């Protein structure tokens, strides 16, 4: 993804306020796109714009004004009755960082931004984590799964999230994901690096895919994981197992880049599954632009 103007995660992390960062990114997004007609969830909204003299005051979104203190005109008043589930990878590799931004921090801001959009649309929202081979419920669906209360619960859960250990689901252990089983029409958003030893992430995704559920995967990667421009001797550490290895970066660069490209191409091919969408983002990409690219792509 080409670098574009927008709020960078490196700057947003310094605010140390997940609610504020999520609001800033979502408002940047709301005022700049025409998304597709509603076919899924609350992040699929029509364009908002600032109120102008001559506009009918009845077109002002007063609920949004109460939350943002801005007079915004909404092109459509379509309401949301969709289920929106967030699924966060909390394995140790989510602690990988570049230029002061970890993969987990990027994921937290991205999900907070989507949760804010869900809050505006009054979507039914829930949050889960995959950690140490188990599914962890952070904010469950229920009678209080929409509106401000759900949004605040989501933020608290995201702020407390810690990444460690491995994510491994052994053959036949799909039962661990029982709480995510559903025949209702919904959208599930998974944020992960999708780095796997065998096919553990593909196993999860295949077990969750069905005609009633659209799965959107945001794969977060670092520039070095894709380009590998390092030179000199480095001690490389597996953030999930703790194993370390000292290598001359230049001597392994070609093999690393070739292997990484082959892996990501195979992953992309394997994810050609109905109702599954893969969005790849770098830690250096503005989060708002990642979301805009996703929504614009779906419009097409």
Strand content: 15-25%
What spatial order of strands do you see in the largest sheet? 7-6-3-8-9-12
- The CATH superfamily is known as von Willebrand factor, type A domain
The number of helical runs is: 9
Major β-sheet, in short?
Answer: 6 strands, mixed
Return the structural class: alpha/beta
Which second-level CATH architecture applies? 3-Layer(aba) Sandwich
Based on CA atoms alone, the radius of gyration comes out at 20 Å
Q: Give helix % range.
A: 25-40%
User: Uncertain runs with pLDDT below 50, 5 residues or more?
Assistant: 33-45
CATH class: Alpha Beta
For the termini, the CA-CA separation is 18 Å
Number of domains: 1
CATH topology: Rossmann fold
Count the strands?
Answer: 12
Structure description:
The protein is an alpha/beta fold. It has one domain: Rossmann fold, CATH 3.40.50. Helices cover 35% and strands 21% of the residues. The protein has helices at 9-13, 18-30, 62-68, 103-121, 147-160, 200-208, 223-226, 249-270, 287-299; strands at residues 48-50, 72-74, 83-89, 97-98, 101-102, 124-131, 134-139, 186-192, 213-221, 233-237, 244-248, 276-282. The protein has a six-stranded mixed beta sheet with strand order 7-6-3-8-9-12. The protein has a two-stranded antiparallel sheet with strand order 1-2. The longest helix is centred in the C-terminal third of the chain and has 22 residues, at 249-270. The chain is globular. It starts with 8 loop residues before the first helix and ends with a helix. The model is unreliable at 33-45 (pLDDT under 50).
